[in-house]
Amino acid sequence: MLVTNTRSATLSVFRDGRIERSIGRYGSRDGEFSHPHDIDIAADGTVYVVDSGNNRVQVFDAGLTHRASFGPELGLSGPKYLSLNNDRIWLADEYNHRILLLDRKHRLLGVLGTGKQGRGPNAFYKPEAVVARSPFVWVIDTYNNRVVLLRVE
């Protein structure tokens, strides 16, 4: 089991209820974190960590060696949760009031939301979480007090 610790800015591996090892510390360099929030693991073992305080996502291999980061080029602001579904990455960009859809090369495929807080068919107000399980995507639209269910093909 992989767990982020927001306060200590670490990523820990637990096995049989005990910490096996931890990586990271507070900072903004590769492998360092500021308020790490969510983790998801791809079928090939690639680990994605939402590094909220640094407005980025860090990518590690199965052995937890840093491989890439993305976020600044997307203008992220307070990303919180992500969800991997096949070759797609769904990312909740809380303070930009949007959900991003990316491919596994971190290229932007689409955006849900206008980038401004709102309520309606294509509007969110601080969406924090996203869960994708084909053919559905659930968005926790926190400040609108709702869960939005989308069907995607």
How is this structure best described in words?
This protein has strands at 2-5, 10-15, 18-23, 36-41, 47-51, 56-60, 66-70, 79-85, 88-93, 98-103, 108-112, 127-133, 136-141, 146-151. The chain has 153 residues and is mainly beta. The model has no long low-confidence stretch (mean pLDDT 95). The chain is 0% helix and 52% strand. The chain has a 4-stranded antiparallel beta sheet, with no helix packed on it. It has a 4-stranded antiparallel beta sheet with strand order 8-9-10-11, with no helix packed on it. The protein has one domain (2-151): Neuraminidase (6 Propeller), CATH 2.120.10.30.
Could you provide a short overview of the structure?
The chain is an all-beta fold and 153 residues long.
Task: Based on the model shown, name its key terms.
153 residues, mainly beta, Neuraminidase, 4-stranded antiparallel β-sheet, globular
Q: How would the blueprint of this fold be written?
A:
Blueprint: E1 2-5, E2 10-15, E3 18-23, E4 36-41, E5 47-51, E6 56-60, E7 66-70, E8 79-85, E9 88-93, E10 98-103, E11 108-112, E12 127-133, E13 136-141, E14 146-151
Antiparallel strand pairs: 1-2, 2-3, 4-5, 5-6, 6-7, 8-9, 9-10, 10-11, 12-13, 13-14
User: What helical percentage do the residues reach?
Assistant: under 10%
Q: What is the CATH third-level topology name?
A: Neuraminidase
Structural class: mainly beta
Q: How many beta-strand runs?
A: 14
Number of helical elements: 0
Beginning-to-end CA distance, first to last residue:
30 Å
Task: Please state the average pLDDT score.
Answer: 95
State the name of the first-level CATH class: Mainly Beta
Please summarize the sheet with the most strands.
4 strands, antiparallel
Give me the side-by-side strand order of the main sheet.
4-5-6-7
Percent of residues in β-strands: over 45%
Output the CATH homologous superfamily: TolB, C-terminal domain
**Overall geometric form:** globular
In terms of quaternary structure, what is this? single chain
What is the count of structural domains?
Answer: 1
Question: Helices and strands, in N-to-C order?
Answer: EEEEEEEEEEEEEE
